[in-house]
Amino acid sequence: MIKLKSDEEIECIRKAGEIVSKTLSLIGERIRAGMATYELDKIAKDFIIKNKAKPAFKGYRGFPRNICVSIDSVIVHGIPDKKTFLKEGNIVGVDVGVEVGGYFADSAYTFSVGNVKGPAKKLIQVTKEALYRGIDKAKAGSRLGDISFSIQDYVESRGFSVVRDFVGHGVGYELHEDPEVPNFGRPNSGVRLESGMVLAIEPMVNEGAYYTEVLDDGWTVVTKDGSLSCHFEHTICITNRGPDVLTKWQKEMC
Q1: What confidence score (pLDDT) does residue 250 get?
Q2: Which of 51, 157, 206, 252 is deepest in the core (most CB within 10 A)?
Q3: Tell me, what's the pLDDT at 70?
Q4: Residue 229, SS3?
Q5: Where substrate is bound, by residue (predicted)?
Q6: What would the pLDDT profile of 86-144 be if each residue is shown by its tens digit?
Q7: Which residues belong to the annotated binding site for a divalent metal cation?
Q8: How far apart are CA 238 and CA 222, in angstroms?
Q9: What is the DSSP letter of 92?
């Protein structure tokens, strides 16, 4: 069931979104080659708690850390640890969820470690642009499939693929709500978008084929062919004036 949010509730979600955005900005300032992914998790946790909020991922369905850190061929849900170190040339997807006063927001950003060139740089650019193309279609009166098709059409026209097994979602009262927001689909299909819907739009784009595999830890999702993957995400609200991004990034960080 899709739950519409009031103006007051949307402002509460925006407060959570601001902390998400600031957390990602801080990670963008600190990320460097040689860091253990656990360090990024600690930076995020400390900042979120300092701002009187809660990391939404910790303990969610048993997830063991505060954020997700996904390197190169890891699509989503990478678990930070003390044994995995960032290297020059890595692309690193960082997914952050925050709860403030019972309201949730969620955003992801893929960072470059050092100088990233060629296909990896193009993959990042295309995935970010796909996110904004999807957001542009998130208008009251349109349909969910308009968002999905816009993302898929752009990504595939650039020679990449969109992941099918994992999708965006509603968010706000809970971390994951209805509806699912696929990154593939047909225009003018799916539910009608209404003012007050809050959605997490999150293209996950692979350099190679869209097939995925979950590792033995039960969380880490990788590309089946070992190709690079990229992930960007915003929490947005549908309004009669157009889409309202509730997790606006402080700056472009890649």
Answers
A1: 78
A2: 206
A3: 99
A4: strand
A5: 77, 176
A6: 999 999 999 999 999 999 999 999 999 999 989 999 999 999 999 999 999 999 999 99
A7: 95, 106, 169, 202, 233
A8: 31
A9: E
Task: Extract the annotated binding site for substrate.
Answer: 77, 176
Strand partners for 55: 98
pLDDT band at residue 57, thresholds of 50, 70 and 90? very high
The amino acid at 77: H
What's the Cα-to-Cα distance from 225 to each of 72, 75, 208, 230, rounded to whole Å? 12, 12, 7, 14
Q: Which of 193, 220, 183, 218 is nearest to 75 (CA)?
A: 220
Distance, CA of 3 to CA of 244 (rounded, Å): 17
Cα separation, 165 vs 184, whole angstroms: 11
Residue 9 has a CB neighbour count (10 Å cut-off) of 18
Residues that constitute the known binding site:
77, 95, 106, 169, 176, 202, 233
Do 109 and 31 contact (CB within 8 A), yes or no?
A: no
Supply the pLDDT for residue 117.
86
**112 Cβ contact list (under 8 Å, min separation 6):** 90, 91, 92, 120, 121, 124, 254
Please name each of the domains of the chain with its CATH number. 7-245 (3.90.230.10)
Percent with pLDDT over 90 in the chain: 98
